[in-house]
Design brief:
Blueprint lengths: L5 E8 L3 E7 L5 E7 L5 E9 L2 E10 L3 E5 L10 E5 L3 E5 L9 E4 L5 E7 L10 E6 L4 E4 L9 E3 L17 E7 L8 E6 L3 E6 L4 E7 L4 E6 L8 E6 L4 E10 L3 E7 L5 E2 L5 E2 L5 E7 L2 E9 L3 E8 L5 E3 L5 E3 L3 E9 L5 E6 L6 E6 L3 E7 L6
């Protein structure tokens, strides 16, 4: 019983498909984004009220919502950036959601993923939003700069008509990182064919790229607003990788540790078995960057600890520096649903409090114990 326990505190069934869940900063409220059976979008706001969840607001829109973030919002306005199924990026004031603060047709296809930075952080540059889409493009937006992206990392034009018919890849995951001052910033992007790219926004170039065995479903830096430290990556077929980003070798790139059983089922006795399933998401604990959670296709969630090696850098045979990856330890695992747990958000202020969504049309509030012992 010395290990952390992940406990389902509250469970709310909804009448629509849940696609994303996010805590509203400095509150006991969270947002649920989803799609109704008629493909209309819904934004529900729930509030924790002792031992129950209270729905305080429900917003309906014409188009289904896929993903959202508060990362570019100030603590004063707490505006939410949302990507939808028609490729539109909107920024909504949840107190007055009828008229969007910002509204742009950002992509030709569905916006699969979104991240943002610069809102609540101090001295880490402009408030920016990054979107990744089925059309293969990764775009960075500053809503103060009008209707065009400030950076457009679209694939080159291809032969053929329609989305992806010419061979461009479907972008499934994006994440900001390396924003330790007002000049530096990178975007990591993962694609359906396993391509992983690190875009340097200061030099407007691809800093590094590699290709994994399976499509990339989730990405997150352990911290956005520090010099690059670690990057968590989850994939189809049960893949979990953690890259050490402190040392980049000219030929070998970044070192990493890989866990290939991160998507298997977890029995009540803790035994891992069954086929490899998709690992949908990775989320680092805000209060401890070396602890993170993954959500899997079998309906399970797992808490991991990254342990650093004795030496993070060694000399290669040619005298250059090469990074050394650490190791992964699974601290806890629990099965919540018969369907994939595909979105998860730690509360930024309350240690161990979290909300997650699954494809069983449910939202769950979780409490994880003993995190303060790490």
């Amino acid at each position: 019983m010395d290990k952390p326990q992940m406990i389902e505190h509250l469970h709310e069934s909804v009448s629509y498909t849940v696609y994303d869940t996010k805590w509203i900063p400095l509150s006991a409220k969270f947002v649920v984004l989803g799609s109704k059976a008629n493909s209309q979008g819904v934004v529900d706001i729930f509030e924790l009220n002792e031992d129950k969840l209270v729905k305080v607001k429900s917003i309906d829109k014409k188009v289904a919502f896929k993903c959202g973030t508060f990362g570019a919002a100030s603590l004063r306005n707490r505006h939410m950036a949302i990507g939808d199924f028609e490729g539109r990026l909107q920024v909504l004031d949840l107190e007055h959601p009828d008229l969007a603060v910002y509204n742009v047709k950002a992509h030709k296809g569905i916006i699969n993923c979104i991240d943002a930075i610069g809102g609540t952080q101090v001295d880490c540059g402009a408030p920016e939003i990054v979107t990744g889409s089925r059309d293969g493009a990764v775009k960075v937006w500053d809503i103060r700069q009008g209707q065009s992206p400030v950076v457009d990392m679209s694939p080159p034009p291809q032969m053929g008509d329609g989305i992806n018919k010419g061979g461009s890849r479907d972008c499934w995951a994006v994440a900001f990182g390396n924003a330790f001052n007002s000049e530096e910033r990178v975007v990591a992007a993962g694609y359906d064919n396993g391509d992983l790219k690190l875009f340097d926004l200061r030099t407007l170039s691809v800093r590094w790229e590699t290709t994994l065995k399976n499509g990339i479903c989730g990405l997150e830096f352990d911290r956005r607003d520090i010099p690059m430290n670690k990057l968590g990556v989850t994939t189809l077929e049960g893949g979990l990788l953690v890259y050490d980003l402190r040392t980049q070798h000219a030929k070998k790139g970044f070192s990493y540790v890989e866990e290939r059983n991160a998507g298997r089922s977890v029995g009540t006795n803790g035994v891992i078995s069954g086929p490899k399933a998709t690992v949908w998401t990775v989320r680092h604990l805000p209060q401890n960057r070396d602890l993170f959670l993954t959500g899997g296709g079998t309906g399970s969630i797992r808490l991991w600890q990254y342990e650093y090696p004795d030496k993070r850098v060694i000399d290669d045979t040619d005298g250059s520096k090469v990074g050394v990856a650490g190791s992964l330890q699974m601290l806890s695992a629990v099965t919540l649903s018969s369907q994939p747990v595909h979105c998860f958000d730690w509360h930024p202020d309350k240690l161990g409090l979290a909300v997650c969504g699954a494809f069983d049309q449910s939202v769950r509030v979780l409490i994880t114990t003993k995190l303060n012992t790490f």
